[in-house]
Structure formats: C-alpha cells, structure tokens
Amino acid sequence: MARVTVEDCIDKVDNRFELVLLAGHRARLISQGAPITVDRDNDKNPVVALREIADETLAPGDLKEDLIHSLQKHVEVDEPEADLPEQLPQASEVQDEAPEETIAFDRMSEEDLLAGIEGLVAPEKNDDF
Which of 60, 62, 77, 85 is the 20 to 30 Å CA partner of 27? Predict the structure, then answer.
C-alpha cells in the first residue's frame, strides 16, 4: 500500500492536531503490544496508526476516549448515593430537650504565666546550633 498521508485521514478526524494526538496515542499502544487491525507492510508504528485511522478499522471516538482515559490522573467513579441517615434534629429542638452545658476554660493570670516562663531552663548550647 502507498504511504498514508494526513490528507487521507483528515476526512475521518476533522482537526489535524487531534489526528496527530490520536495517531501518536495509537502508535504508543502498538508499541506496547496492542494488536494491529491492518497489514503492517514493514511500516513503522505511526504509519500503521495513520493507516488504521484512514481505513476506519478503529473508531476515532473510541480512540479519543481511550486517549483521554490514559491521560487522567484521577478517575471519578459515579457511584449511587447511599441512603442518607435521618436528619439531625434542629438546634431549637435540641435546646428544648437538654439544658446547655457551660464550658469552662482554665484561666491563668499574667503573673502566673511569667513565673512559669522564668522557671524554664534554657537548653545548653552546643556547636551544632
């Protein structure tokens, strides 16, 4: 078969840049051992990929989806949402049921804090610092 050109494939894939991306992806797949759908005829992988696209032995849409999937780092899986638990009672309902607890914080005066800091011993100096 004669050499395939971009013009042979442009009616299958409208955008030349997309065609190059798809053919390059397919050529890498062939290099990794994917079965080819046309006779090799001693051609290199990019030429075989373009011939597959030109002969329409591969659907460009499927090849595009495979390319997108190969470039994704994180694939989201659509999972059905689990049944939501019953809603929590509203704040007004909670207040009616139980009295509020008071939260107490330990308080320290400034003098106590300074006395505690003065009691700390500085670390010994060594040559590393």
Answer: 77
* Alpha-helix runs per DSSP H in 36-109: 45-54, 60-71, 91-97
Q: Are 37 and 64 in contact (CB under 8 A)?
A: no
Q: For the chain, 129 residues long, give each residue's pLDDT as a single digit of tens.
A: 567 777 888 888 888 999 999 999 999 999 999 999 998 888 899 999 999 999 889 888 899 999 988 888 876 777 777 766 666 656 555 555 555 677 666 777 888 888 888 877 777 777 765
Q: Are 61 and 14 in contact (CB under 8 A)?
A: no
In the chain, which residue ranges form alpha helices assigned H by DSSP?
6-9, 16-31, 45-54, 60-71, 91-97, 110-118
Type of residue found at 46 = P
**In this structure, are residues 36 and 51 in contact, taking their beta carbons and an 8 Å threshold?**
no
